[in-house]
Amino acid sequence: MSNKPMILVVEDDAAVRNLMAVTLDTQGYQYHLARNGSEALMEVTTHQPEVMLLDLGLPDMEGVDIIRKVRGWSSMPIIVISARAEDADKVEALDAGADDYLTKPFSVDELLARLRVALRRVHAEQQAAGGETPIYENGGLQIDYAAGCAYMAGSEIHLTPIEYKLLCLLAKNTGKVLTHNYILKEIWGSYTASDVGSLRVFMAMLRKKLQSDGGAQPYIQTHIGIGYRMLRIDRPSEESQ
Ligand code: CA
Predict the structure, then answer these.
(1) What is the pTM of this model?
(2) pLDDT digits (tens, 9 = 90+) for 112-151
(3) Structure confidence by residue, pLDDT tens digits, 32-73
(4) Among residues 78, 152, 160, 165, which one has the fewest Cβ atoms lying within 10 Å of its Cβ?
(5) Which CATH number fits domain 6-127: 3.10.560.10, 1.20.140.10, 2.60.120.260, 3.40.50.2300?
(6) Spelled out in words, what is the top-level CATH class assigned to the domain 133-240?
(7) Cα 118 to ligand 1 centroid, rounded to whole Å
């Protein structure tokens, strides 16, 4: 993955879209452009952008509905950029889960400043969730990243290299739904639609091994048609029996 942050621009007005594209490009950001709501949702799932810049008035759906949909499974920062200056519109967007709101016409400098704030938040969260802790603990599950071993209730779980990589990817994103495409790209570097079937098989094996302690506690949740999520487990499974 490139170090340049990936920004998704959702805007049906070609002139505004081009202005944003040129601005992001000159500032060293990568970007994807969506002209309507369905393109936006497609881009969010396929490219996992770090921040979304969202126009509220789109030809096929309300921007607020996009915010609600995306918030069902992602905490990515969403900055609304809208000509609607009414407080009621702002409140509705923020209530739906938008992080910030800019009114058109907007200043490019202000847009970039808001974007930097959003990216700082993303990176702070990634660091908090990320690789600094050498031991991952969740319920009865432990992963020793330095040793490359995983344990359930103190006993080592024997994993294939792919299963171990899958487990680490899910663990590092505990609580977040990871899409099939995202997992396939992270583990195998590429994907085709048929790979989703193999992923399902690997996940089934991994899940079986995680439950070999006899615990009924599910660690990995399936989101049918979307992907998988590592759940945060409060206490070791044996205590709940
Ligand atoms: Ca519009």
Answers:
(1) 0.56
(2) 999 999 988 887 777 766 555 678 899 889 998 877 889 9
(3) 999 999 999 999 988 889 999 999 999 999 999 999 999 887
(4) 160
(5) 3.40.50.2300
(6) mainly alpha
(7) 22
143 CA from centroid of ligand 1 (Å): 47
Cis amide bond preceding 105, omega within 30: yes
**Domain extents in the chain:** 6-127, 133-240
What is the distance in A from the centroid of ligand 1 to the CA of 105?
12
Report the C-alpha gap between 21 and 25 in whole angstroms.
6
How many angstroms is it from 58 CA to the middle of ligand 1? 5
For residue 237, name the pLDDT band (cuts at 50, 70, 90).
very low
Residue 157 gets which letter from DSSP? E
CA of 208 to the centre of ligand 1 (A): 48
Give the Å distance between the CA of 40 and the centre of ligand 1. 13
Q: What are the C-alpha distances in Å from 84 to residues 24, 37, 58, 63, 235?
A: 23, 17, 12, 12, 47
